[in-house]
Specification:
Layout: H1 3-16, E1 27-32, H2 36-46, E2 52-58, H3 62-76, E3 81-83, H4 86-90, E4 97-100, H5 107-116, E5 120-123, H6 131-144, E6 148-150, H7 158-168, E7 175-185, H8 203-207, H9 218-222, H10 234-249, E8 257-263, E9 276-283, E10 286-293, E11 295-306, E12 309-312, E13 317-319, E14 333-334, H11 344-354, H12 362-381, E15 385-388, E16 393-394
Helix pairs in contact: 2-3, 5-6, 6-12, 10-12
Length: 395
């Protein structure tokens, strides 16, 4: 019997203790993925104000998994079950839902398996890195009816909620163009991997059914954001957050077409994903552009151009700039923000109890996956990519 398997069997009892009478109203969560994002989710559960606890942790790398187990015990007062295989977490009867914070390429399969196992799920963005897997995961969620929250947290931030309401109420008139950009000057997503030892990694689990070819590669484990077999690059890693706003604000879930260009222009360190990227996506009567570079810290912008004025969604401010409409915004002003907006995690946990739809629903996750997969496919093919919403196919 492997050491990992022994650890799983010995510590499952600790997690099961939380199912004793007196704790029946506690939501018990399995955390799948114990890296930086997993640590953030732990903090979000602890700060949610809900009666919830993490009772199991899963990671293929012993170092991350054991560090997370110690932090979970410190936070919730009980040692969680530990395993390297997410399927074992899904088999636990004392786990009500899972938090999926694994590398991008694993999200749709783990989500589909989770809902088929009867678990609710909080799944980090992107919803998927390939269109076929996005459709598969979406269908699994709809078929099972489980509660799913996608980790596009801007849907739970007051300034973005205020901006959505302003656009949908016509404050800036008809929106025909959107410009989104983020720029940094850094070899983003590089991490040290020299301390990773083969004996500390369940490499077969990380290969994910052969998705990753070849033997043990610590760089793939730590810098998976840089390789094509583990991510679709900037579209999934970053564009997801911003393009989600387009579907939300415009109430128009899918682009009609997308074109993208980019490449590795500066950080020639073996990475396969772009360090400079730009995409154009055509929604109904609206052109949305997204750009990102890791080659100059030019900052960011999130501007929505309407017939009555402009919305700066980052500054939460509207003005009549550029408009000649007689009903244009006459004086710039800051949008009032809604009060009492619950956190993204609190929203998910409350919806688990009430069996209602979270803010970032599976429909929202599928919509951003369609857009980002279209952009990624265009980057790879050098051609415009369309989407047929009836056949649910990229064309």
């Amino acid at each position: 019997m492997s050491a990992t398997r022994r650890t799983f069997l010995m510590t499952t009892a600790a997690g099961a203790a939380l199912a004793q009478p007196g704790a029946n109203d506690r939501i018990r969560l399995g955390l799948i993925g114990c890296g930086g994002r997993g640590r953030d989710l732990l903090k979000m559960v602890a700060a949610s104000g809900e009666n919830a606890a993490i009772t199991a942790v899963c990671d293929v790398w012993r170092v991350n998994r054991e560090a997370m187990a110690a932090e979970v015990e410190k936070t919730f007062g009980r040692a969680p079950a530990q395993t390297t295989r997410y399927q074992e977490v899904l088999a636990m009867k004392d786990v009500d839902g899972v938090l999926i914070a694994t590398p991008d390429f694993t999200h749709p399969k783990i989500l589909a398996d989770a809902v088929e196992a009867g678990k609710d799920a909080y799944v980090e963005k992107p919803f998927a890195t390939t269109f076929e897997e996005a459709r598969m995961a979406y269908d699994a969620v709809k078929r099972t009816g489980r509660v799913v929250q996608v980790g596009t947290q801007r849907r739970s931030e007051d300034k973005f909620i205020a901006a959505a309401e302003a656009v949908q109420k016509g404050v800036i008139g008809k929106v025909t163009r959107v410009s989104m950009e983020y720029h940094f000057f850094e070899p983003r997503w590089r991490r040290d991997y020299h301390m990773v030892k083969a004996e500390d990694v369940d490499w077969e689990a990380f290969r994910f059914g052969g998705r990753i070819q070849g033997g043990f590669d610590p760089r793939k484990l730590r810098e998976w954001q840089l390789f094509r077999d583990t991510t679709n690059g900037i579209p999934g890693l970053w564009m997801t957050h911003l393009i989600d706003l387009a579907a939300w604000y415009l109430n128009d879930p899918y682009p009609k077409g997308a074109m993208a260009m980019g490449g590795v222009y500066l950080w020639k360190d073996g990475r396969q994903t772009s360090d400079v990227f730009q995409a154009m996506l055509e929604y109904t009567d609206c052109l949305v552009t997204f750009a990102m570079s890791l080659t100059n810290s030019a900052g960011g912008r999130n501007l929505w151009f309407g017939t009555k004025g402009v919305l700066d969604a980052e500054a939460n401010r509207v003005s009549g700039e550029g408009s000649r409409d007689p009903d244009r915004i006459m004086q710039p002003y800051t949008l009032p923000r809604p009060a009492g907006v619950e956190s993204h995690m609190a929203n998910f946990l409350r919806c688990m109890r009430s069996r209602t739809t979270p803010r970032a629903s599976v429909e929202a996750g599928y919509a951003h996956a369609v857009a980002t997969c279209m952009a990624a496919a265009s980057l790879e093919s050098g051609r415009r990519v369309g989407y047929d919403p009836v056949k649910r196919e990229l064309v």
